[in-house]
Amino acid sequence: MSPVTRYIIQVDRPGERVDMAAIRALLDEAGVALDPDYGPIPINPKLGRYVVRGVASPDARARAEQIPGVRFFADALQEPAS
Questions:
Q1: Which domain holds residue 14?
Q2: With 90 as the cut, is the pLDDT of residue 75 above it?
Q3: Residue 42: inside a domain, yes or no?
Q4: Which candidate, 6, 7, 14, 72, has a CA 20 to 30 Å from the CA of 79?
């Protein structure tokens, strides 16, 4: 089994209604598991740009990145300062 990595996933869907169900439908088939408590967060609603958090194996990420408008970014865990 491939290791999974946490990501912030950017989804561009200009002119479409974007909610968690729509993003889940888009990414489930690729094998990306979404964090149900995070997103979609609007980054630029005019461009239809939103982000969600999820986990994916290298294979799932490669499949999802073939979907137009989907980009992955590292999701570094932040530790409290004190």
A1: 5-74
A2: no
A3: yes
A4: 72
